[in-house]
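Each lists sequence, tokenised fold; shown next:
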Amino acid sequence: MAASATLHCLTGCAIGEVLGMVIGTALGWGNLPTIALAVALAFVFGYALTMRGVLKAGVGFRQALKVALAADTVSIIVMEVVDNGVMLVVPGAMDAGLASLLFWGALAFAFAVAFVVTLPVNKWLIARGSGHAVVHAYHH
């Protein structure tokens, strides 16, 4: 369950992260505004993916949002801190540009590291009945 929750989180984060990095890089923004956009979009897409499944179960929007916030917030925070931290420490990655193998390679590496670091966090949360465990009540 922890691996599935982490992969789910990684999917939402990756969509938002890639979109934010692409937009920020294409617009020539600096590291800080690009990362801020990428993180904001990672939260939006991470929560949206969880809400989609909960809404399908017939839950109202407000309750689905509460479930998504409870299920994903810690996981997304850990994932975002790690993957953006990796991007910042890989020399030249943030300045490489969208056509660069360095940019995409560093981003893929950052996601892999974030998955490995976030997995035990999700396992710990689920074992305590929080994190993605709160979503399980809505899966059929």
User: Anything to note?
Assistant: The chain has four helices and no strands.
